[in-house]
Amino acid sequence: MPDASDTIFALSSGRPPAAIAVVRVSGPRAGAALEAVIGRVPEPRRATFARMRDPSTGEMVDEGLALWFPGPKSETGEDTAELQLHGGRAVIAAALSALASVPGLRPAEAGEFTRRAFENGRLDLTRVEGLADLIYADTEVQRRQAYRQLRGMLGDRAERWRTTLIETIALVEASIDFSDEGDVPSNTLHPALQAAQLLRAEIVHALADSHRGERLRDGLVVAIAGSVNVGKSSLLNRIARRDAAIVSPLAGTTRDIIEVHLDLNGYPVTLLDTAGIRPSVDPIEQEGVRRALERASAADLVLWVVDISAGQKLVLDDPTLQFSQTPRWLVVNKVDLVAAQNRDWVMSLVPHAGDRLISISAKTGEGLDELLEKLTEYARNYLGSAEPALVTRQRQRHALEDAATALSRAVEEGKSNGREDIVAEELRLAARSLGRLTGRVDVEDILDVIFRDFCIGK
After folding, report:
1. Rounded to an integer, what distance in angstroms lies between the CA atom of residue 165 and that of residue 158?
2. Could you read off the pLDDT of 32-44 as tens digits, one per residue?
3. Hey, which end of the chain has fewer CB within 10 Å, N or C?
4. How far apart are the C-alpha atoms of 194 and 151, rounded to whole Å?
5. What is the CA radius of gyration of the chain?
6. What is the CATH number of domain 220-383?
7. Is the C-alpha dihedral spanning 28, 29, 32, 38 positive or negative?
């Protein structure tokens, strides 16, 4: 684990070259670093023109703006400085080299600035997770969800629940420890159990969201599957509007899974182009088919593509596929090769398909708008809701489930046996679970996992 007493620095803006580069310094020697490279510490929270020099050589590095944020009123909760320089690669390299020459400074590790903000009480763990999701949000809907978490949508609620629990525990423990005192009510267990019951109902309601928040973080996964040479890769390329997959008249061209990430009206969708499903003696193609079956079975939706020009040899299904739990649409491709009046017979082959049958031409684009409209609507129903999701990660869900379970045990014990000591212990376990949710207790084992996904400089 990095030493929190070190002063760290890193490029905190985007990849160069860029118009502006922001270099951040945080730690007890941040002020000394400014003295070393610009000759002074500017007025707090006021952008100041400065010329940066390399203290080891005295050579001018660049000129720009310097900002000083003394702790604890800074993003990390400790002394922090920022240098806004020109964003060329050579400028950035020289600036980082100059800071490295200052005694007591070292390059930051991934997520270390945010980790210090957490450890100094500037962010709770749910806000940290919201920040990570905001950085990696690909669509507008994901951005909104992540920003709500960053603003404390779950963290503030959890802290309110925890405060209520602490007050409830105090009621029960007062009855245990001071039962002989005249100013302590004789029956504090009953209001404590009522409060625990109400709190449990709130938490259970928050959990009853069909995992909507986790779904939105991961996005809708759609597998394009089918036999060989039915146009799966052509369909992927048409939707992606680029040559993401190799298209060839030779059967078995696609061997591995190809992924394309889409933004459908703000909803994140991942398309998977899979290998054509057929018996094969080629071990490489066999592995491709195995992976295709595995990924398609784990997808949220399967587009089963068939070739209408194959006539009576049309393959509508395959007995090796196990999609019993996965919704499947039938996508009839290559309609450009069949006269319009001869297409109706396909519908008769699948009389129960209804709106799950879509006729397209991956070559000409016919029917593609209808397919994308249906995919967008499906994504909206699968991922979206009028009510924002409170829980967005499995870790958060587990902590809340543990709290709800402990509250259930407390209420059951209080009603059946009336053992106040056991009720108090169960309430303490519930409070501990809520503490783990926000990062107050028992989180050292998960911090590395959370912060390893952050980029350097954040």
Report:
1. 10
2. 999 999 999 999 9
3. N
4. 30
5. 30
6. 3.40.50.300
7. negative
CA angle at 320 for the pair 316 and 324, rounded to the nearest 5°: 80
Residue 32 CB partners (closer than 8 Å, separation 6+): 7, 102, 104
Weakest mean pLDDT among 9-23, 248-262, 299-313: 248-262
Q: Quickly tell me which residue has 């006021």 as its tokens.
A: 46
Phi, psi of 379 (to 5 degrees): -65, -40
Residues in the chain: 458
Distance of alpha carbon 130 from its chain centroid, rounded?
A: 8
213 and 393 in contact (C-beta within 8 Å)? Answer: yes
Check whether 387 has a pLDDT greater than 90. Answer: no
Closest by CA to 233, choosing from 220, 213, 249, 218, is 249
- Domain spanning 7-120, CATH class: alpha beta
Q: What is the pLDDT of residues 183-225, one digit of tens each?
A: 445 567 788 889 999 999 999 999 998 888 998 988 899 988 8
Report whether 235 contacts 302 (CB < 8 A).
no
Burial environment of residue 84 by CB neighbours within 10 A (0 to 12, 13 to 18, 19 or more): middle
Neighbours of 220 (CB within 10 A): 24
> CATH number of the domain at 127-209+393-451, out of 3.40.50.200, 1.10.150.320, 1.20.120.430, 3.40.50.2300?
1.20.120.430
Calpha distance 241→204 (Å, rounded):
44
The interaxial angle of helices 125-135 and 394-416, nearest 10 deg, is 150
373 Cβ contact partners less than 8 Å away, ≥ 6 residues apart: none
